[in-house]
Amino acid sequence: MKRVGFLLFEQLQLLDISGPMDALDSANQHLIRQGAEPAFELITLALNKRSLKSESGLALTAEASFQQVEQLDWLIIPGGKGTRAVMNCDKTMSWINQIADKATRIISICTGAYVLAQTGLLEGKRCCSHWRFIDDLVQRFPTINFEAEPLFITDGKLCSSGGLTAGIDLTLSLIQQELGKGTAQATARDLVMYLRRSGDQSQFATPLSVQSSDSRLQQLQQWLMKNLQKPITVQQMADYASMSERHFRRVFNEHMRMSPKDYLQQLKLEHARGLLMSSSMQIEQIAHSIGISQADIFRRVFKKRFGLTPSEYRQRF
């Protein structure tokens, strides 16, 4: 049984703890229903056994103090406003390094990357965090290879995830590595997750990325999602947004940081990827659903974007 510790501190982000913890507990419950022993022992830890408050105000009390725990298999470090104080706590940094000597996984969720980086364990390695904090992390820790795009990264025994719910995606991936694809899929179903996202999937979830105050772009995105099977030109997009094509291109690039054409293709391919993982549709049907008439063309553009053919992607995920 893997002993998994969850680091608690003042002003932590609650979902960074509860998401992975619920995923691991759901995996345990699935194993028990199958007549097997649970795979994970879950324990909360803090510098001292006292009441702590999360960012949202929920009071938490650790089951054990650092002095009571000398060894863990996995350590999960959450993010939150409190990470700044944790980074400056020599006792906490020393304890994490001590645990890391024998642990098989040290895992940071969201801005927990600040804490993991401060330990020195990430020197020369890849790491991700919430995209909003990547520039600051790069400035603070220039010898670490921080990446804004991935949902999660595994570099040796060090694991990191992007913001918030990406911690659940990382945990499901680790469950699959430990217990197999069937248990990971059953856990995702128990959590009522639409699909299990791979680590290389971007944090910038395309359907949610139109956060502009310009309602014309928000309405355009909804229209595009409903018409992915149709051939749509940039001029048509500009007309729908009630702009000239030149002005539309400028506004779109300013708000979305990509061209309208690239955005539309990303929408189509993300939709296709979701269908590959969540449906039994034939490759040709999926291609037609995003307006590509020939399966060979779909295979080529899909592989260029994700590094795998649609069939390979479906088998893997």
Question: What does this molecule look like?
Answer:
The protein has 317 residues and is an alpha/beta fold. The protein folds into two domains: 2-190, 3-Layer(aba) Sandwich (Rossmann fold), CATH 3.40.50; 206-316, Arc Repressor Mutant, subunit A. The protein has helices at 14-33, 83-87, 90-102, 112-118, 134-140, 166-179, 181-190, 215-226, 234-240, 245-256, 260-278, 283-289, 295-306, 310-316, and strands at residues 2-7, 40-46, 51-53, 59-61, 64-65, 74-77, 105-109, 126-128, 145-147, 152-155, 158-161. The strands form three sheets. A seven-stranded mixed β-sheet has the order 5-2-1-6-7-11-10, with helices on both faces. Strands 3-4 form a two-stranded antiparallel ribbon. Strands 8-9 form a two-stranded parallel sheet. A hairpin with a 2-residue loop joins strand 10 (152-155) and strand 11 (158-161). The radius of gyration is 22 Å and the shape is globular. The model has no long low-confidence stretch (mean pLDDT 91).
